[in-house]
Amino acid sequence: MAEAEESDPAAAAAAAAGSSPRSPRQCTGSSERPLSEEEREKLRSDRVLVSDFKQQKFELEAQKNWDLFYKRNSTNFFKDRRWTTREFDELKACREFEAQKLVMLEAGCGVGNCIFPLLEEDLNIFIYACDFSPRAVEFVKQNPLYCPERCQAFQCDLTKDDLRATVPEASLDVATLIFVLSAIHPDKMQQALENIYKVLKPGGIVLFRDYGLYDHAMLRFKSGSKLGENFYVRQDGTRSFFFSKEYLASLFHQGGFQTLVNEYVLRETVNKKEGLCVPRVFLQSKFCKCE
Ligand SMILES: C[S@@+](CC[C@H](N)C(=O)[O-])C[C@H]1O[C@@H](n2cnc3c(N)ncnc32)[C@H](O)[C@@H]1O
């Protein structure tokens, strides 16, 4: 479940993409993490899927479950993601000339761990930020760094509410999807991407970071949590998909995007207290809306 996975300090740091993403224990690559025989057997033997009835319930209650997540954790769960400008040069474009204002959307913004470090760093940026948890959006609006001249937070289900109701069509330079697509049912990921496509400028870019195939979190799920291939439910009802780079590229290509970068980020997270060293796998990618 989200708490068990990410409130573990080591895992939380990794899930938040860590404070030093280019640390010596991190490397990027195009191949999947190799599994040990034991890990392979664990995944092979986990064949029983959650019943259709329960699967439908998780889908119907997805918004409620994320809202309850923020009710329990308020703003204390995810760490501020201060690494985004280091990892994604596109976010720094607005620093070069005053006229280069960057207009972006943080899709699935949670309580703003990604946007507030950006607003603090860059004056020349306007951020639309949406989430389908009303509570998360409220936390964003209450943050002392929130100011309507530089940011507009709104509630929206990326898979069904047309973003153009708030964000002008073809107006964005950048959209970020940071640990969000994994929370959406695979059958609906395409809808979310189509929605984002419409509000990006031609040449606009989606910056993506999320759980990669064979991440430690995937191996930790107990039997009875599997919803489908590479898709699991946590104890709190929130769900997580683990992306292979081929799967992700195919999703974006179907949505009309072109791949710029698509690679695994492999790192080991050390939990000193428990003496554990766990392999984390993320997928970090950039996709462009063709001009
Ligand atoms: C792991 S959090 C990531 C939050 C944020 N991007 C960050 O970097 O801290 C995933 C977020 O996705 C949101 N989410 C899940 N499904 C969504 C959907 N269909 N539409 C909009 N937001 C969604 C959840 O409410 C949650 O806040």
Overview of the molecule:
This protein is of the alpha/beta class and 291 residues long. The chain has one domain: Rossmann fold (3-Layer(aba) Sandwich). 31% of the residues lie in helices and 27% in strands. It contains 11 helices and 11 strands. The strands form 2 sheets. The chain has an 8-stranded mixed beta sheet. It has a 3-stranded antiparallel beta sheet with strand order 7-8-9, with no helix packed on it. A hairpin with a 4-residue loop joins strand 10 and strand 11. Bound molecules: S-adenosylmethionine (SAM). The site of S-adenosylmethionine (SAM) has 20 residues, from loops.
Summary tags:
291 residues, alpha/beta, Rossmann fold, 8-stranded mixed beta sheet, 11 helices, 27% strand, globular, binds S-adenosylmethionine
Number of strands: 11
Spatial gap, N to C terminus: 41 Å
Give the CATH superfamily: Vaccinia Virus protein VP39
Task: Tell me the fraction of residues in β-strands, as a range.
Answer: 25-35%
Largest sheet strand order: 1-10-11-6-5-2-3-4
State the shape.
globular
Q: Using the 3D structure, state the CATH architecture.
A: 3-Layer(aba) Sandwich
CATH fold assignment: Rossmann fold
Radius of gyration: 18 Å
Average of per-residue pLDDT values: 89
The major sheet is characterized as: 8 strands, mixed
